[in-house]
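CORE FACILITY INTAKE
Project code: CF-77B
Contact: R.S. (postdoc)
Sample description: multi-component assembly, two entities in total
Requested service: structural model of the whole complex
Turnaround: standard
Below are the sequence entries exactly as provided by the requester. Do not edit them.
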Amino acid sequence: MADTQDNRPGEEEDEEEEIDDTSYKTIKDAVLFAIDISESMLERPPLSDDKKAERDSPASATLKCALHLMQQRIISNPKDMMGILLYGTEKTDLKDGDNTFQHCYLLTDLDVPCAQDVKQLRDLLENEEEAEEILKPAKEPASIATVLFCANQIFTTKAPNFSSRRLFLVTDNDNPATVKQDKETAITRARDLYDLGCTIDLFPISKPDHGFDRTRFYDDLVYPTSPSDPDAPVAIPSTTKVAKSGDGLTLLKQLLSSINSKAAPRRALFSLPFEIGPGMRIGVKGFILIKRQEHVKSCYVWVGGEKPQIVQSSTSHMADDTARVVEKIELRKVYKFGGDTITFTPEEFIQIRQCFGEPIIRIVGFKPLSMLPLWANVNKATFVYPSEADFIGSTRVFSALQQKLLKSKKMALAWFVARKNASPVMAAIIPGEERYDENGEQTMPPGLWLVPLPFANDLRQCPEQPPEPRTTDELTDKMRVIIEQLQLPKGVYDPSKYPNPDLQWFYRILQAMALEEEVPTKPDDKTLPKYKQIEKRCGEYIEEYGQTFDEVFKTVGRAALSSRPKAAAKKRPATAAADDDDDEPKPNKRVKKEPKVKNEDGDDGLTDEQMAGINNKGTLTKQTVAVLKEYLSARGQPVTGKKADLVERVQDYLEDKGL
Amino acid sequence: MAGKEATVYILDLGTSMGQKRHGREKSDLDWAMEYVWDKITTTVATGRKTALMSVIGVRTDDSDLAGIMDVDEGYENINVFSPLKQWLLPDIRRLQGVVKPSATNNGDVMSAVAVAVQQIDAATTGTTGKPLKFDRRIIIVTDGRGSLDTGDMDAITSKIKDYDPPVEVVLLGVDFNDADSGYKEEDKDTTKVENETILKEFVENCNGNFGTLAEAIEQLGIPRIKETRPTPSYRGTLTLGDTEKSQATITIDVERYPCTMVAKPPTASSFVARTDLGGLGETQSSNTIVGDEDVPMDGQLSAVRNQRVYQVDNPDDPGEKMNVEPDDLERGFEYGRTAVHISESDANVVKLETAASLQLVGFIQAEKFERFLPMSRTNFIVPQKTNAEAQLALSSLIHALFEAECYAVARLVVKQDKAPLMIVMVPHITPSYEALVEAELPFEEDVRRYKFPPLDKKLTVSGKIITEHKDLPNAELTQAMSDYVDAMNLSEYDKDDEGEPTEYAKIEDTYSPLLHRVNQIIRWRATHSDPTLPLPDPPQILTRFSEPPSDLIQQTEQQLAALKKAADVKKVPPKTKGRGKRSRADRDKPLSGLDIDALLGNPKRIKIDANNLVPSFKQALAATDDLEAIQEAADAMAAQIRTLVRNSVGDSAYGRALEALRVMRDELTELEEPEIWNVFVREFKSELIGGKLGGDRREMWWKVRGSKYGLIDRKRCFASDVTEEEAAQFYK
């Protein structure tokens, strides 16, 4: 079984063709929740009949939030660590028998979460007895300095070299240290954490009778946010909104939203000069904001012991002839050619790959956005944002460019070399507008997007097609009604409405298996079309379309067949039956809305009438080739040949129309 | 994909080809071979067994017909260098050895054509005597200075046109007159004039192609694009509505073909020099071995195998690993850090069951579509072949989308039990075909919702909105940028064949630089095996679009100057770090701006605390400028690192030690005291390797090495006296 993974000798692929985003992932993150367990944190909101009313105490909302985050991170960041520390509890337990940190209870140790952690947390939320035992406030609250030092120790030992370490402090107490001495200790401990490279993220919760005033205590503890990549743009406000219950939104939702708003790119994909014109450079950074999230690859599991264990595999290179272990630097890259091999020295290799100049994004010129058709796509786009690290003034120039491109609906064409060894590509740089949701949260950041374009080498031919049959205006209009009826909300595609069904199913099953629970049987697939809505909104239009289709096909379809006897003589595939519903026509209901005459839309250039007018005036030959082509192509006519051919074709077309 | 091919090259090797004419640096033959080698190596590079080639020399010193003709008479000074076969690298080498100008001008090109026809005939006729399906081609390269025997010309012509398709004859004349390109050689001697006429007439009669060599070589620069036969990735139905339960549905039979597909350069494989031959330095030259046909390159290199080792944590001995046999392993997945074992029979349980389908989900407005969302290459959705109903129905959808200015969103499952994809489909109408073009859209999980600050305003901590700021463009900059962008317009910068303005840098005009570069170099090396030759530069056409067109730059000089002035961008000078900067006053402060050191009474010495190692070290360094105190802090830190390693059970404390090393190294670099670190790390290395820190700590050394926590060299810190080579040596 192990053999399936072994590469054939010499077949190992080596080149870094794509922008390598593995380094992007290696920036691991460790999050430790520190949750204040006090009487007020445990207090439930008054019962209410309103379904949307708050049901959770602040503490349990926080724990639910932590559970949600834990499950989400297992999917999205399987290498990241998470832990939950309760403080102010009667019990003291740090899972190591040490009682130094009074009233601190380590519910989940800081580690990559395991199935058991998920289960334990869920049980705690469901099982009230257990909850009461653990979530019991001490008579004396824990000192905040103790909590901070405890977090310090946990981070130091459990996640020593994680570049991103964050302490999520959830509390409703805005002044936990009233004595000056205590406050000073807390401030010192907070600075220790800062020096250690850990961030304190405060998630304040307001009490029903009392707001949360940061200036009383926490502003001395929290530092301006420092992302792990010192060059990453600081977007996140260092302060988080104060969550309070009974605000329409549940506490849980507010907390989740606060935590999500802390999501920041941990590292830039690239940091490059951006040449807007010769001798005019600014600095930019690239970030991956859109990327296919795959589920974890299958791994080997050792089942020889008590518990199944994940196997770590390491690969070494071995010379085929002597079975000698080979170091990487000894490897020679070889091209196969004519049944033999052609080698280059490593220096020559560098010369071959790096002959296109330094890594850069260089604008070649500008074009209207309409010159970027959808087919010109080969890969995901990269988000680009300015950086002042190398050029002072980058942000304002970038901003001017972004706003200009937005305003004029233009794009830049650029020569793009992402890294030293990267293959140069041509890219379209398109503006991205900042967008917000109804709560004022940013949903799309402002910036530019770099869309890699295909080269001539990457274009494939569309298979040949007989010229007939083509649609008629009548049939097109029937289809158009359906299209207008089935618009997605606001006429846009919103990714957040479509969770990946395959990914979700995979983790649901995996979680059930990991927890040894019953495996669910029915997936929840939000990508399936909403059949009922389709039926309701345009069932009748679909039937009308079907009828028109039959009529049109009788004339157009037959003509098509007779016009190409060769193709007609061929065997028709068995699956030719197209529209099931066509066989059973329903009584025809008149569509209320008159289908628009397409020529009056005005969007596809000149109308037939206008063109006829031009023709009658004898000025048809004065029209530019572009106008004629647009007119013809909008009517499905060929646009090949010289101008004289185009003019003739337009006249033929008008004649057919009786104009 | 191309079919079978048989190509014969007829090379004129007469003495006259050895001359350099018209101020060229190369002899006519070398010049001609530039073209021939390019053609031959291109064919060899495809590795196709069905692309047969042979080379016939004419006006050679000796004669060798390789038994192709029944008689030798009349075929003197013709040399068949190779049978018609697939060419490999050794064939190229062999040909290189024989292609040189001869000592004679005798020999007849037409006779060589007869031999070529005969050779093709023999190689492309089936066992039944019928000609097989082949693309036959004869390429003649000559300077037209030999003598021509026109006797059999008509017979040869009719033989050539006898095949279906006929043999394609290509004539490349060295300095032939050419009406098309307007080339005319001055003072041409009369034989050449006559020969040119005869040869051109012959080619015309064969419906072949004539061109000058100069033209042909010029065209070599334009990269050739490999054609690929389209293969469908989905064949099925495009549906609207619930086809199982509902009456009102639309079903169209469609197929999906690639529209874009990134063509990758050839990949290199890994080999290693054979050790039994004395190692890399001696026998392994940097490229192929010349001339020695019996010892192929492979003799010098040995394939590389990958050996895998499987390890688990030893349950009996925490901190230790043990090797396990591949036979004891089963498949599974990681859920967090839990291993979920899934037996072979259960393997499908994690798979979502799906049926192959393409279902319309809804429609969106083209205007509002975010062009950065599509995340894949694109495909055509076309009607099923020869299905007129499907073609009509799809045509109506395509046109309706086009007119309504909408795109379709659909759910695609290409094969049973494959994961569903959300795709966007846009209408694509051309004169010769209609299709939907489709690309993948992101799911919820695929979008990372990172926040970035606004670009058109500034928000303060207190929530105020500022519109004038150094990070925001002022009116002057906005205007200058607008003018510049408008001036650098490419949309009508090029001219089409009729002189009408057209888009500059169309996709059809851009060629993948790396792909053609690698191919170019491989082909070049195949015919230039001397390792001392410098590699040629990439052809200009590959870098054509790496910069704005130069005359456009000139035209927009003014706008650019205005933009530069308004932008006032300054390069950040190289970092001026120093100890001076690290005063306490510069330390980061909490949101409130509280001076914590002042609060604590600005202590002068801070002790390194084992339980608070990294923070106390940083604070100790911040508290002092005194070299002695720095040394003291570093010593204390070093002692703690050693303690961590010494007391580590297995590798349990290595992580902490590494983090401490990183901080210590970074801080000392910044303080410009690299010597303190370098002294320590040299000792530390020898202690690790020498087993002086509680047993075998070599693994710790590997980790230090892997993290590159070695010597601080001059490049990293100017105050260091360690060279980069020395630093690199340290890791060995």
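Facility notes:
- Chain B touches chain A through 259 residues (CB under 8 Å).
- Chain B has 19 helices and 24 strands.
Invoice: internal transfer
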